[in-house]
Amino acid sequence: MAESRHSVFRQFAASDWNGFLKGVEKEGLRVDRNGFIAQTPHPEALGSALTHPTITTDYSEALLELITPVCSSTSEMMESLRNTHRFVQQNLGDEVFWPASMPCELNGDASIPIAEYGSSNTGRMKHVYRQGLAVRYGRMMQSIAGTHYNLSLPDSFMEIWQRALGDQQNMKDFKSDQYFWLIRNFRRRSWLLMLLFGASPALDASFVDGVRHELARCGERSWFGETATSLRMSDLGYHNNAQSSLNICFNKLSTYTQTLDRAIHTNWPAYEAIGTQRDGEFIQINTSVLQIENEYYSAVRPKRTARSGEKPIHALESRGVEYIEVRCLDLDPFSPVGVSEAQVDFLDLFLLDCLLSESPKISDAECVLLDDNYKDVVSNGRHHELKLCRAGERTPVGEAATAILDGLEPLAEILDGWNGGEVYRKALSAQRSVLSGDRQVPSARVVDAMQASGLGHRDWTMDMALKHQNMLRKEGMDTGVKASFVAAAKDSLTQQQQIEASDTLAFSDFLEQYLRS
Asked: What pTM did the predictor assign?
């Protein structure tokens, strides 16, 4: 019998381990003092949303996205994220940064301004893509915010790992295979992250105005899922019928890119009926099931940094997987930056174990079961009688979660032994406390905190937003760090002007070239 991957890893020396490379993309709405989505343009003091390296917008002009650089430690990443939050908070004026995944008060699609990126062809294409999302799914779904966690392993580790496994492939193919190995196990276990970190059990009534749902009342203006962990990831959140038929295959890079490419080049009748232009203005990039790769919603993605003008799918095909992006994380409303160090350390441990554990290809039948487990925890993860399908048997969710945490213990001990601390054992212990009932899962904390305060979703979240803002503004910033943010904002505005001045193609020709590439 072949030696297990865990056994191979245990034979490494401390000097063979170089840790993780990591980064975060954290979204959040700008909101006025009444708890309503901001109608103002992206603040000029924050720079250009098109070209700024760390401060941009996602779907809406009001939906900020803060991006850390690639970091080699959790503390470095968290400090980078906190500095960006400090700078943003100092430049929001009377507005606040919404700390919850489910949005503030809205007034239908018209109240959600689509992000603007200037007059360049690149900027216009980003805007048209978002217009396409609006005509396909509506804007309400696009007002939801989350945290995306990016993780990779250093090339130095991958080289040692490849030799230890006796693999003879070129490094590009080996790394892609390893990341898809990890992704397959992530899909088998992603329900656990929704249980441990789901933090969006409630929402403002304006989000479901006119929508049929099965939520319970929580005050006059709020609804909540009595046993839900994440309404963001439920059918009320990121969900659409066209994508449910895609059957994107995560077994290996070639099947992933082939099925994704097919979706980008397959017309969808409903989108074809809409057309690409209205009154002479582009309203979507094309009429395919997906306009571009990024339109596909999934809990995890294999990623490769694309070059200027390069499609993400082509970057993956030509240079392989560079890192994985975990996309299912709700914002932690109790954290001023939306995520905690203990959470990040647990994610590292969890993801590494996904790489080291056996990971057979996922059959169509297993794929259905995995999707069902995920949906069940999203909708009913706090129901004490919920059972999941594991190894062909129905297992209580708490028992299944404890089994995964038990399996992580030896790996936590190895990493702590190599690093000379207790970081991973403490991160694991924190989640054990949640499962044992000593501490609550975040979704239960949110509901209890709202009910204890007597406030609805909007007012309770607004209260948290103001507390976070006051804290971060009082902390201030190092003079040099602040100066670097000011300079980056000014440079980004100059870069946008240069891009706009250098454009020579008409937008229709630019778009045609992009679609042909």
From this structure: 0.96
